[in-house]
Amino acid sequence: MRSVGLFLLVWVAAAAAAAQTVGVQTTAAPHYAGEPIEVHVVVQGFEEDPAPSVVVASPPRGKLIAAGVHPSVSTSITIVNGQMRRTKEVTFTFVYQLQVAEPGPIEIGPFAVTQGDTSVTSRSLRLDLEALPSSDQMAVELTFPDTPVYVGERVPVTLRFRLTGRLRENLHQYSLRVPFFALTDTFQFLEPPNAAGTTQVEIQTPNGPLSLMGSAREEKRGADTYLIVEIQRIAVPLRAGSLEIPPATLDVEEGVRFRRDLFGGRSPTQIRKWRSADRARRLSVKQIPADRMPESFAGAVGSGFSLTVSADRTVVKVGEPIALHFELRGDGNLETAALPRLDAKGLLPPASFRVADGEIPGRFEDGVKRFTAMVRVLDPNVGEIPALEYSWFDPTAEQFQSAKSRPIALSVGDAQRIGAADVQSAERASESSASDREEPTAPAPSRTGSLVLTGADLAIERDAELLLRRASVGRRNSWALAGLYSGSVLLLLLAQFDRRRRDVDPAIVARRRRVESGLRRIRDVSNLPAPEAAAEIARALRALLAETPDVRRPEIDALIGECDARSYAPAADRDSAPIDAAFQQRALELAQSLTESGS
Asked: How far is CA 119 from CA 92, 93, 113, 377, in A?
C-alpha cells in the first residue's frame, strides 16, 4: 500500500512539472537581415498571478528587444459519465523583436521562465538570415554637408528615394528606415520654413514610426519614368563629436501575381522583396570657440542677424519700469537663440539701469524671435537707452560677428512730487508777469482803510416820528430781513466752498481721477481672457506707480512681473479662460494700498 501511495505522489509531481511548458515561435522563413523579426515566447501551465518573468541572454549580434506580454485565460467544462470537470488554461505570450543588420546564421536563447519557485527553460532558436536582393529600379539617399559643422548650426538634410514606374505600379508596400532621424538626443530636428509637402511619408525609426510631409514628382530618365519623393529637414547639433550615421534603407514588396476582387481591384497572391541601401556617413560637429566668445553672445549661430529694440514709454521718472521689446531676425537658429544678460558688456550699463535677473523667455513666430524685458532707470542724467550689441557665430566665416540696435531717446525726471503750494506759486508768478505786461491805466483813488467816509452824511437824525416809523417798518419786515440775512450767509458759505474747490491743486485733481481710472481698470478685467487681463492689470499698476514715485513695494513689482509672464507667455501656454478671481482681488488690494500710501 505504501508503494502505491509513493507511486501516485511521484506521478502527480511529474504531471505538475510537465504542466509548465515554454515554446519559442517566429514567422516562417525566409528571414531577412535588416528587417525586424518577431519572436514569441509562449508560456503555459503557470498560475495567473503573478506574471512569470523571462530571462534571456543578449544575442551575439544585433538586438533582441522586449515588445510586451499578452496574458490570456481560458476555462472549459466537460461532463463525462455524470462527472463535471472544470479546467483552466493560462497562457502568457512574451513578444520580442530581433533586429540584425548583417546576414548569416544567428542563435538566440534559451529563454528561462520563472514564477515563484518554479522555473522552466526553453530551447534555443536558430535562424539563418538572408540578404535582401537589390534592384536598379529603386534607390534611397540621405544627404547633408560633408564639411564639419558647429553646435547650434542649422544643417540642411535631404532624404530622397525613387521608384520606376513599373515597380510603382506593382508596389504592394514599402518600408523606409532612417536611423539618423532617431538621434533626438544628439540633434534637434526642425521643419524648414515655408516647407510645402504634397504627400505623406511614413519612416521607420528605432523609436517608432515617424510621419513626415514630402514632395513628389515624376521625372523621365531614358526609357523609364521615375517617381521621386523628397523630404527636407533641418538638423541642429546639440553637442560636439564625430558621429557615425547608419545608412538609410528602402525595402519594397513587389507583387508578382495578383487576383481581382469584386470591385475590380487587385491584391497580390505572390510577392518578392527588394532592398536599396544608402552608404553609412560620418558627421563631424565642432564646439564654438569659447576663448573668443563676446559677452553679448547667447547661442545664436548663422548669418545676417539683426536686433530691433523698442520701448513702451520714453518719458519716465527714476525707478519707473520700462518695457523693452526685442525682435531678433536672421538666417540661423532663431528657434533656440536667446538674449544675453542685459547688463553684459555692450548692453545696458549697470550703474544707470537695473535689469531683471534670470533668462528672458522668448517666442518664435513668423520667422522672428521676440522678447520682452523690464528695466528701470537709476540715473536721472540718463538721456537714452544706448545701442545694444548682439553677437552671433558665423560658421561659414568661423568667427563671431556683432550688430547693434538703434538708441532710444529718453526723458528722465527726478522722482519728485509736486504739491498744491508749488502750483499756486507758479500761478501767482504767472499772474504777476501778466500784470507786468498790461498797459498802464489811470491811477485809482487811494484807500487807506476798508471804510471810506468821503461824501457820507454824518448828521444826527433828531426827528422822533421818522425814527419810530423806521422801527415799526423794521418790525413789520423782520421776517424778510431774517430771510435776507440767512440767504446772505448761505451765499457766503457757498462762495467759500467754491473758493476752496477752485484753490485745490489741479494736479491733485487730475491724479485722483487717474487713480480712480486705474482701480476701475483692474475691476473691469473679470470677463477678459487671462493673458489680456494680466496685461491690463500690469498697465494699471504701472500707471499707479507713476502717480506714487516715492512709494516702492517689492510685492507690487513681483505682481507686475507675474502679469508680464502671463501676458507674454507662448501661444501654446496661454489660457483663454477668464482670469481667476483671487489673482484679480490681490491686484486690486495692492493697488488700493499703493494709492493710500501715496495719498
From this structure: 14, 16, 6, 76
Q: Are 65 and 306 in contact (CB under 8 A)?
A: no
Residues 261 and 316 in one domain: no
Is there a single domain that holds both residue 196 and residue 101? no
Q: Which residue has the higher pLDDT, 599 or 205?
A: 205
Indicate left, alpha or beta for 358 from its phi (over 0: left) and psi (-120 to 50: alpha).
left
Residue 3 falls within a domain, yes or no?
no
Strands 266-277 and 281-286: unpaired
* Better-scored residue on pLDDT, 485 or 423: 485
Under a CB-based contact definition with an 8 Å cutoff, are residues 414 and 318 in contact? Answer: yes
Cα–Cα distances in angstroms (integers) from residue 43 to residues 47, 57, 94, 299, in the given order: 11, 18, 8, 55
pLDDT digits (tens, 9 = 90+) for 497-523: 777 766 655 666 677 777 788 888 888
Backbone angles phi, psi at 30, to 5 degrees: -85, 155
Residues 148, 122 share a domain: no
Instruction: Kindly indicate the confidence band of residue 153, based on its pLDDT and cuts at 50, 70 and 90.
Output: very high
Question: Among 75, 41, 74, 38, which Cα is nearest to 56's?
Answer: 41
Q: Which domain holds residue 559?
A: 507-598
Which cell numbers in the block locate residue 254? Answer: 513587389
Report yes or no on 571 lying in a domain. yes
> What mean pLDDT comes out for the span 205-231?
86
Return the pLDDT at 503. Answer: 60
Give the span between the Cα atoms of 16 and 134, in whole angstroms: 52
Last residue of one domain, picked from the residues 413, 434, 457: 413
| Residue 306, strand partner residues | 329
Instruction: For residue 116, give every residue at least 6 positions away whose Cβ sits within 8 Å of its Cβ, in sequence order, or none.
Output: 47, 50
Judge if 513 and 572 occupy the same domain: yes
Residues 96-114 have a mean pLDDT of 90
pLDDT score at 463: 61
Q: Per the structure, how many domains does the chain have?
A: 4
Q: Do 343 and 385 touch, CB atoms closer than 8 A?
A: no
Name the domain boundary from 285, 316, 348: 285
Mean pLDDT of the chain: 80
pLDDT score of 390 more than 90 = yes
Pairing of strands 118-121, 266-277: unpaired
Residue 479: C-alpha distances to residues 149, 291, 318, 472 (Å) = 106, 102, 64, 13
3-state percent breakdown (helix, strand, coil) of the chain, nearest 5: 25, 40, 35
**What's the gap between Cα 348 and its chain centre?**
27
Please check whether residues 199 and 337 belong to one and the same domain: no
Whose cell is 542649422? That residue is 154
